[in-house]
Specification:
two-stranded antiparallel ribbon; 193 residues; extended; five-stranded mixed sheet; alpha+beta
Length: 193
Protein backbone atom coordinates (compact mmCIF):
# COMPACT_ATOMS: atom_id res chain seq x y z
CA UNK A 1 0.00 0.00 0.00
CA UNK A 2 1.42 3.38 -0.95
CA UNK A 3 1.48 6.29 1.48
CA UNK A 4 -0.10 9.67 0.83
CA UNK A 5 2.26 12.13 -0.83
CA UNK A 6 1.45 15.52 0.72
CA UNK A 7 2.28 18.76 -1.10
CA UNK A 8 5.13 20.96 0.16
CA UNK A 9 4.17 24.65 0.10
CA UNK A 10 4.20 27.87 2.15
CA UNK A 11 0.37 27.99 2.39
CA UNK A 12 -2.72 25.90 1.63
CA UNK A 13 -3.70 27.75 -1.57
CA UNK A 14 -0.24 27.16 -3.04
CA UNK A 15 -0.34 23.53 -1.90
CA UNK A 16 -3.51 23.03 -3.90
CA UNK A 17 -2.46 24.99 -7.00
CA UNK A 18 1.33 24.72 -7.45
CA UNK A 19 3.33 22.98 -4.70
CA UNK A 20 7.13 22.82 -4.76
CA UNK A 21 6.88 19.04 -4.69
CA UNK A 22 5.24 16.22 -2.79
CA UNK A 23 6.60 14.12 0.06
CA UNK A 24 5.46 11.31 2.33
CA UNK A 25 7.68 12.16 5.31
CA UNK A 26 8.98 15.30 6.99
CA UNK A 27 12.61 14.72 6.07
CA UNK A 28 11.67 14.35 2.39
CA UNK A 29 9.64 17.57 2.61
CA UNK A 30 12.55 19.39 4.28
CA UNK A 31 14.86 18.22 1.49
CA UNK A 32 12.45 19.63 -1.11
CA UNK A 33 11.89 22.92 0.74
CA UNK A 34 15.44 23.38 2.02
CA UNK A 35 14.02 24.48 5.40
CA UNK A 36 12.08 22.99 8.31
CA UNK A 37 8.44 22.07 7.65
CA UNK A 38 5.35 21.52 9.78
CA UNK A 39 2.43 19.24 8.88
CA UNK A 40 -0.79 21.23 8.67
CA UNK A 41 -4.41 20.88 7.49
CA UNK A 42 -6.30 24.03 6.47
CA UNK A 43 -9.61 24.84 4.85
CA UNK A 44 -9.31 26.57 1.47
CA UNK A 45 -11.62 28.01 -1.12
CA UNK A 46 -15.27 28.92 -0.90
CA UNK A 47 -17.86 27.36 1.39
CA UNK A 48 -20.70 25.43 -0.22
CA UNK A 49 -24.24 24.91 1.04
CA UNK A 50 -24.40 21.24 0.01
CA UNK A 51 -21.93 18.39 -0.21
CA UNK A 52 -22.89 17.80 -3.85
CA UNK A 53 -22.00 21.38 -4.80
CA UNK A 54 -18.60 21.00 -3.14
CA UNK A 55 -17.95 17.70 -4.93
CA UNK A 56 -18.87 19.35 -8.25
CA UNK A 57 -16.46 22.23 -7.57
CA UNK A 58 -13.45 19.94 -6.95
CA UNK A 59 -13.64 17.09 -9.49
CA UNK A 60 -10.70 14.69 -9.37
CA UNK A 61 -9.53 15.86 -5.93
CA UNK A 62 -12.05 13.91 -3.82
CA UNK A 63 -13.66 10.49 -3.84
CA UNK A 64 -17.14 10.87 -5.28
CA UNK A 65 -19.57 8.18 -4.15
CA UNK A 66 -22.62 9.46 -6.02
CA UNK A 67 -24.00 6.76 -8.34
CA UNK A 68 -24.03 8.89 -11.50
CA UNK A 69 -20.53 10.37 -10.95
CA UNK A 70 -18.56 7.67 -9.16
CA UNK A 71 -14.87 8.53 -9.05
CA UNK A 72 -11.95 7.43 -6.92
CA UNK A 73 -8.70 9.22 -6.19
CA UNK A 74 -5.38 7.34 -6.22
CA UNK A 75 -4.16 6.43 -2.70
CA UNK A 76 -1.11 8.71 -2.90
CA UNK A 77 -3.32 11.69 -3.90
CA UNK A 78 -5.68 11.65 -0.90
CA UNK A 79 -4.43 14.86 0.72
CA UNK A 80 -7.78 16.65 0.25
CA UNK A 81 -10.98 16.00 2.17
CA UNK A 82 -14.37 17.61 2.51
CA UNK A 83 -15.30 18.96 5.94
CA UNK A 84 -18.61 20.12 7.27
CA UNK A 85 -18.50 23.20 9.49
CA UNK A 86 -21.04 25.36 11.23
CA UNK A 87 -22.10 28.30 9.08
CA UNK A 88 -21.68 31.74 10.65
CA UNK A 89 -24.95 33.42 11.48
CA UNK A 90 -25.63 37.11 11.66
CA UNK A 91 -25.52 38.52 15.15
CA UNK A 92 -24.43 36.86 18.36
CA UNK A 93 -24.08 33.13 18.60
CA UNK A 94 -26.29 31.60 21.18
CA UNK A 95 -24.61 29.19 23.54
CA UNK A 96 -25.79 25.61 23.21
CA UNK A 97 -26.86 24.13 26.52
CA UNK A 98 -25.87 20.55 27.25
CA UNK A 99 -28.65 18.00 26.92
CA UNK A 100 -29.29 15.42 29.59
CA UNK A 101 -29.80 11.82 28.42
CA UNK A 102 -33.45 10.77 28.54
CA UNK A 103 -33.31 6.94 28.58
CA UNK A 104 -36.97 6.83 27.58
CA UNK A 105 -38.73 4.62 25.00
CA UNK A 106 -35.54 2.74 24.21
CA UNK A 107 -33.71 5.95 23.21
CA UNK A 108 -30.82 7.48 25.05
CA UNK A 109 -31.08 11.03 23.70
CA UNK A 110 -34.23 13.11 23.25
CA UNK A 111 -35.28 14.33 19.84
CA UNK A 112 -33.68 17.68 19.04
CA UNK A 113 -35.85 20.70 19.67
CA UNK A 114 -35.97 23.46 17.08
CA UNK A 115 -34.29 23.52 13.71
CA UNK A 116 -30.85 22.14 12.95
CA UNK A 117 -27.76 24.32 12.98
CA UNK A 118 -26.92 25.49 9.45
CA UNK A 119 -23.73 23.97 8.08
CA UNK A 120 -21.55 24.41 5.03
CA UNK A 121 -18.91 22.33 3.27
CA UNK A 122 -15.28 23.33 2.65
CA UNK A 123 -12.26 21.64 1.14
CA UNK A 124 -9.46 20.91 3.63
CA UNK A 125 -5.92 20.42 2.33
CA UNK A 126 -3.29 18.54 4.36
CA UNK A 127 0.24 19.61 3.44
CA UNK A 128 3.80 20.22 4.63
CA UNK A 129 3.95 23.95 5.42
CA UNK A 130 7.34 25.57 4.97
CA UNK A 131 8.22 27.61 8.03
CA UNK A 132 9.05 31.25 7.37
CA UNK A 133 12.45 32.52 8.51
CA UNK A 134 10.94 34.41 11.47
CA UNK A 135 9.52 31.14 12.87
CA UNK A 136 12.72 29.14 12.59
CA UNK A 137 14.55 30.34 15.67
CA UNK A 138 13.38 31.31 19.09
CA UNK A 139 13.82 34.94 20.09
CA UNK A 140 16.27 34.05 22.86
CA UNK A 141 18.63 32.53 20.27
CA UNK A 142 17.90 34.80 17.31
CA UNK A 143 18.72 38.03 19.14
CA UNK A 144 22.29 36.78 19.69
CA UNK A 145 22.83 35.75 16.07
CA UNK A 146 24.37 37.76 13.26
CA UNK A 147 21.02 37.97 11.44
CA UNK A 148 19.40 39.73 14.42
CA UNK A 149 20.32 43.16 13.08
CA UNK A 150 18.31 42.47 9.93
CA UNK A 151 15.12 41.63 11.86
CA UNK A 152 12.58 44.39 12.28
CA UNK A 153 10.93 45.15 15.61
CA UNK A 154 7.65 43.62 14.37
CA UNK A 155 9.40 40.38 13.39
CA UNK A 156 11.13 40.21 16.75
CA UNK A 157 7.80 40.75 18.58
CA UNK A 158 6.27 37.98 16.50
CA UNK A 159 9.12 35.67 17.49
CA UNK A 160 8.73 36.48 21.17
CA UNK A 161 5.00 35.68 20.99
CA UNK A 162 5.76 32.08 19.96
CA UNK A 163 5.62 29.43 22.67
CA UNK A 164 8.99 28.39 24.03
CA UNK A 165 10.35 25.10 22.79
CA UNK A 166 12.77 23.08 24.89
CA UNK A 167 16.44 23.20 23.97
CA UNK A 168 16.62 19.42 24.37
CA UNK A 169 13.98 16.84 25.36
CA UNK A 170 13.27 16.61 29.07
CA UNK A 171 14.80 13.55 30.66
CA UNK A 172 12.59 11.28 32.75
CA UNK A 173 13.00 11.55 36.50
CA UNK A 174 14.97 8.71 38.02
CA UNK A 175 13.85 9.35 41.57
CA UNK A 176 10.57 10.37 43.16
CA UNK A 177 9.76 13.65 44.81
CA UNK A 178 10.36 12.38 48.36
CA UNK A 179 13.27 10.02 47.67
CA UNK A 180 16.98 10.69 47.99
CA UNK A 181 20.03 8.56 47.27
CA UNK A 182 21.69 7.10 50.34
CA UNK A 183 25.03 8.86 51.08
CA UNK A 184 26.97 5.63 51.52
CA UNK A 185 25.30 3.87 48.54
CA UNK A 186 24.11 6.27 45.83
CA UNK A 187 22.49 3.43 43.86
CA UNK A 188 19.96 2.88 46.69
CA UNK A 189 17.00 5.28 47.13
CA UNK A 190 15.61 5.94 50.58
CA UNK A 191 12.42 7.78 51.58
CA UNK A 192 13.07 11.38 52.58
CA UNK A 193 10.13 11.84 54.89
Amino acid sequence: MSAIRYPVAPDAETALAAPLGRAERAREAEAIAGRPVVFQAEAVGAAFETREAALDAYPGRLDDDRPDRAASVAPEDRFCQLREEIAPTGGRRRAVRPTEPAYADGRRWPKPAGKATPTRWRLAVSYWRIQPASELAQARKARRSAEAAALSAAEMRKMTAQPLRPVRPQQPLDIGLFETPAPEAPHILIPDE
